[in-house]
Amino acid sequence: MNLEQIKNEIIRYADIIDCKGFSPGTSGNISLRYQDKIIITASGVSNGNLSYDDLVVIDFEGKLIEGKQKASSEKMLHVEFYKKRADINAIIHVHPTFLSSFAAAKKGLEEPVMAENVYYFGEIPLADYALPSSMELVNNTAKYFDKYNAILMANHGFIVGDVDLAQAYLKLELAESYAQIVLNAKLLGGAVLLNEKEVAEIKALKN
Ligand SMILES: [Zn+2]
Question: Which residues sit with Cβ closer than 5 angstroms to ligand 1, an ion?
Fold first, then answer.
């Protein structure tokens, strides 16, 4: 993909993310790895109506290389994820209602509730709270980047990375629906968990 195609791809998915209500207000940021650089949404823009000017290019130190606006304030979170994981080429950080509800309650999604989620995520851990945009937040969250593609951020939101933007978006959609299911199941007396054998069988499907 060339730079223009990458920008179009980000704008397309940002629009879907907005329509789904995953990034209320001007929250959330999206990035793609582009050769030895990162294309990322600018600071303070709403995902719903992005233009080319709302996307900027940064290097792996977070320095602005190209663009008319400041990069997202969470740019170092993206930089660190890409640095730790050569297999990750697209990252979405958002504040969807149900995932953020778990983040607000400081609860990870770690129990084996639904087969599909055991298969795709294993668990979705909870990273400790730190001030948004701070290096402390980057460090608290980056601890999980080695082992996990999807992480809840306490009292804040959610971040997911994948091989491309289409996959990252699908994981976001899946995780948000999963959070809603777990919450709803609590209203029904709590989910009945899959047992160890059932979890092992699901994980074996990956091999
Ligand atoms: Zn955020």
Answer: 157
Bridge pairing between strands 126-127 and 150-153:
parallel
Report yes or no: 113 and 191 within 8 Å, Cβ to Cβ: yes
Strand stretches in 2-101, DSSP E: 29-34, 37-41, 55-58, 64-66, 90-94
Separation of alpha carbons 56 and 62, rounded Å: 11
User: What pLDDT digit, counting tens, does each position of 75-99 carry?
Assistant: 999 999 999 999 999 999 999 999 9
- Domain ranges, residue 142: 3-204
Distance 29 CA to ligand 1 centre (A): 8
What is the model's pTM? 0.96
Under 8 Å between Cβ of 182 and 194: no
* Domain containing residue 156: CATH number: 3.40.225.10
